[in-house]
Design a protein that fits this description.
This protein is elongated. The longest helix has 26 residues. The chain is of the alpha+beta class and about 130 residues long. The chain contains 3 helices and 7 strands, in the order ααβββαββββ.
Length: about 130
């Protein structure tokens, strides 16, 4: 009986966390950006990475750890547009994360067979 109560509490907590993450991802974008782009869940074909180079970590950040959630749009040509920090465990990595993501390129996501702009939030982990 206790086991089922634990599962129910765990499942409820997991759903709340997932809902909070989805809400946080959407709140990373302006109303205008939301209106002019698609969510990943709306796409027939998700964007595919074409170029994703790892960041060059400066010596003063070696040995430090950080987790940075970065939000950006992937436009209809597969370019990263308007990257921004959604959440960061160490602000020293924020500029590095933005510079890294700006250089990424994608095959654009498709909706109705046509390339579309898509909202993305990705975690970057530095170790």
């Amino acid at each position: 009986m206790r086991y089922f109560k634990f599962l129910k509490v765990f499942a409820t907590a997991a759903l709340l966390l997932l809902g909070a993450a989805a809400l946080q991802a959407e709140s990373a974008f302006s109303e205008e950006e939301i209106a002019g782009s698609s969510a990943m869940s709306e796409l027939e074909t998700p964007p595919k990475p074409v170029k994703q180079s790892p960041p060059s970590i400066p010596p003063e950040l070696h040995g430090l750890k950080a987790s940075v959630q970065i939000g950006f749009l992937i436009d209809e040509k597969g370019r990263v547009v308007k990257p921004r920090i959604v959440q960061s465990s160490n602000d020293s990595f924020n500029d590095l994360a933005i510079r890294c993501v700006r250089n990424w390129e994608f095959e654009p996501g498709k909706k109705g067979g046509q390339p579309v702009s898509v909202r993305v939030v990705v975690p970057l982990r530095f170790k």
